[in-house]
Amino acid sequence: MNQSVQIPISKETAKKLKAGDYVYLTGVIYTARDAAHKRMQETLDAGKELPMEIKGNAIYYMGPSPARPGCVIGSAGPTTASRMDKYTPRLLDLGLGAMIGKGKRSQAVIEAIKRNDSVYFAAIGGAGALLSQKIISSEVIAYDDLGAEAIRKLEVKDFPVVVVIDSDGNNLYETAAGAYEKKKDEG
Amino acid sequence: MRTVEAIEITKQIKEMCIEANHFLSPDMKKALETAAKQEDSILGKQILSQLEENLEIAGKDMIPICQDTGMAVIFIKVGQDVHIIGGNLENAINEGVRQGYQDGYLRKSVVEDPIERTNTKDNTPAVVHYKITEGDSIDITVVPKGFGSENMSRIFMLKPADGLEGVKEAILTAVKDAGPNACPPMIVGVGIGGTFEKCALMAKHALTRNLEERSSVPYLKDLEEEMLIKINGLGIGPGGLGGKMTALSVNIEAYPTHIAGLPVAVNICCHVNRHAHRVI
Lengths: 187, 280
Fold this sequence. Notes:
The complex is a heterodimer. By secondary structure, chain A is an alpha/beta fold. Chain A is built from six helices and seven strands. A five-stranded mixed barrel of chain A has the order 2-3-4-5-7. In chain A, helix 2 (34-45) links the parallel strand 2 and strand 3. Chain B has a four-stranded mixed beta sheet with strand order 4-2-5-10. In chain B, strands 6-9-7-8 form a four-stranded mixed beta sheet. Chain B has a two-stranded parallel sheet with strand order 1-3. Classes of the chains: A alpha/beta, B alpha/beta.
């Protein structure tokens, strides 16, 4: 089912999304990858506030290439999400509404998604040029010294993603490949 | 003895870094087009058509195909009748990478130390593989290698008794474990034999081969074809979201090895299998 979803996202909306749904996201998302996650963890450990509101918001695992003059952003596709698995359950328990990345997640992350009615979306890996065109504005809001790994606030319109892990813990990576294998055997 | 200015090598490497990150080779483009036609899964078909659209945008607007513009791997074959003047060869190569990544708006993804992890801010140093050959030319291949797929690559030190079946199992294990993380449809580079490092280098080099060419060794050609069918039966599909186009090609290189060993390296590359080639 193709549908449009506003970000930030409510738990009620997240709960309606099912693994396999093709979704267009519109609204505000935040980028963070390896180094920014490490620093967010250190910030929380020190008892300090994160640089952005986490409740209901979405983190996009992405570090763009530099923008050419006159462009909003450079190439902007997802990076492998599993590298952030170590830090993710804590952010989900703080209210993180959604994640956008690519690739498998750990069981601990899947449990935290279920527990918090969150959702994990996959964007198309390696389609950074196409995805850059769905980003209307980009602003570094924290950790500027991390360069490509800084936290950016992005405004997106009709940003294409697929629901991979839904709030019931269904995992499209497991079911889709399995379903296809079975179909082939039967054929 | 022919002389070549170091600055000429810098200029060519710079251009190749930019070219490789915005344009795929014709054989790669053709393989993606063919995959889009052959895919049965609806979601898989949609993703493959978006990858084609992505390539068009990248070339037209000069936006890198993928934001991970890679660590620059350079294969350079220097003819033994060439004399390089005006500078150190490795410095000339790194200067080309530096200029290409800065002037080409490519992402700087290299950290100075694997543990301390401070970004070098110019994507240097490159990883350079030299070979001395006959003649008076310099043959350069620039391979910007992304780490989504690099991280899913593997080396297996098999026993001679594991034989061909062991090699097949190793390749399938690497691809299955990589799954969606390596941005399928992928290219699977395989090295068999040699030593630990030689087989890894062969696997990397195999990724640069034209996809329309198969191995000239009959049993390796058969193995390439058999493994492609087996991999595409796994069901992983484009983006790992299910389908039959999990790999576009399996390219295998082999080398003599020790009586006690059977090394196998599997270097996976995503569908953005980039390489630019020039001869000076």
